Amino acid sequence: MTIKPLIILPDPLLRQVSAPVERVDAELEQFIDDMLETMYEAPGIGLAAIQVGVPRRLLVIDLAKEGEEPAPLVFINPEILKSSDERSVYEEGCLSIPDYYAEVERPAAITVKSLGRDGKEQLTEADGLLATCLQHEIDHLNGVLFIDHISRLKREMVIKRFTKAARQKI
Fold first, then answer.
1. pTM (whole model) above 0.85
2. Binding region for Fe cation
3. Range 12-169 classified under CATH 3.40.50.300
4. C-alpha angle 157/158/160, rounded to 5°?
5. pLDDT < 50 positions in the chain
């Protein structure tokens, strides 16, 4: 397995809409393993393919707590079919926006249709942290970042900070 470099704000790739995965094959299996390894190393609880520079509709999630057995979830071509009217607020962070956290309000429960790692269709009813994480990662596939759900002023400050940091690395 290979740990992939993470794409960091303000990289314009993060705003790209990801294309559907065409087929589940050995190459994709290897890439899924690489994504999981990258997510665990970061460490994070979710990772979209675009965050490692691959604009494909694929994401991985693992909500197992430290010391628990890993419980990786794979979502290929995920699509939100239903969202609850009830809302919930979680403090979100992002591997592509390191060390920045903000409270984000999203639907409390969702139903997601996707393909699993085996290429078979799966339906996932999610609430709580899983619902939040799925929505966060699916947003990535659509070129949306969690900072797009906070006030314009806060968002502009975050983008400015990361743009300045990126310039200093050059």
1. yes
2. 94, 136, 140
3. no
4. 65
5. none
